[in-house]
User: Fold these one by one.
Assistant:
Number 1:
Amino acid sequence: MSPTDPAAEPLLTVTGLHKAFGDNEVLKGVDLSVRAGEVVALIGPSGSGKTTVLRCLNGLEEPDAGRVTVGTDVEVDFSRAVPKRDAARLRDRSAMVFQHYNLFPHMTVLENVVEGPVRVQGRPQAEAVAEAERLLARVGLADKRDAYPFRLSGGQQQRVGIVRALMMRPKVLLFDEPTSALDPELVGDVLTVIKELSEEGWTMLIVTHELGFASEVANQVVFMDQGVVVEQGPPRVVLGDPQHERTKQFVHRLQARF
């Protein structure tokens, strides 16, 4: 768990975030903040809105209302029409690691991870390739640079997904249940990479059901239910001594499964 300064200003602030899909109101006014270098674990039952929060931050969904601030130079108010430039700047501040990898099947590992920096950010091809090779070596995939995704295990594909996110040089890394699609024996490799990133000071927002991992890596745990934040605080409180009855029920039920 990386130490962070409790007095530091938040890097990411979310205020009053609302999102509905038709008549289904998924987010009902979510507030949260993340300081630089902090790891925040989002936990809660399926359908509580955790993934939708990440998708709103990454520009995959547009909130119906609310405000998102990243650092001192990006502030987007979704209660009014958002200029494309502001939406793009918000999207550029984060990078997403998906539950089901979302790699391009017709591209090699190297092509997958340099696509964004070269095509979207306009970085030189040679520079992107050099950085990609360094990062792939770091996660133990140097020998897979020319392989296609179907040749990789789920754990290897997810590590490629993490490298792809790092290549975008984001302010905030977003992880959507990064181990839930993996065979149990492959989970450890991915969690080790995420833990190493936390120790290096990356700012991360992680949706997870791995309570042991959240307890070990997260600075803060946010429990969501029915589209709102029910409880948030240090892991020792939210996971070890939850104050809200709904949180107690969820944590007890999840711990009883393992």
Number 2:
Amino acid sequence: MNDYARFTSNDPQPDNTSSHKIGRQTIVHGDCLTHLRTMSNESVDIIVTSPPYNIGIPYGAYNDRQPRETYLAWLATIGHELSRIMCHQGSFFLNIGSTNADPWITADVANAFRPMFALQNTITWVKSIAIGEDTVGHFKPINSQRYLNNNHEVIFHFTKHGSTPLDRLAVGVPFKDKSNIARWGHDRDRRCAGNVWFIPYRTVQSKAQKFDHPAGFPTELPKRCILLHGRPNAIVLDPFLGAGTTLVAAQDLGCFGIGIELDDRFVATSIARLEALDVR
């Protein structure tokens, strides 16, 4: 079965969902677990998503203050579906944040997916960094004498068996010392950039500048994940689409994508962002 046929399967849609097709992207308006259960086995190559953090973020249609056990059990149920629909050599990039008062949430979330996936890489997304007297990027300031400002989040790279090959140089960087190119047998001026990604979180003056979403990520983040996985024309899934950033990245890279979103406001935002692109 070719990529397009896998993506456009005729699986029935639940009665309480609707979908919108824009370019190579499909936006599903509905509950993610309900729709995931209708998707075919091994039908997606890459999953890039950021679920609700369960730290009280005001998403709107979702209550982000669930009992910890309920929240983790819900994620585990979703994880079983994601494992089923992800290809054998697929990649699942899970971005999760935390608070200083609840630093264990990232580890707890990763552990919820442990029965279904192997943790192949752990990536630190640095949103802001201070170098000497200079600083680049933005973070949410806190008023506390106990904690430092939290300038990073985690991206867990899950695979089915821990052996999925990656295109590390697709998101690589040039050598600083050019003599290392020949010395270490490289055929071009490119090396692995490692597992710390500096993707600045830009300062905004209004919620509209971040598409009215309280916990989005920059487009460069899903782009790096898609490029790192290294499959052209990949089928990308974001089961917690939010403001549509993963599908914007997929469209820019020529990939097929499907995003599932519960909140009708963010569905409308995602549609508008994709329609603003030169989609074909």
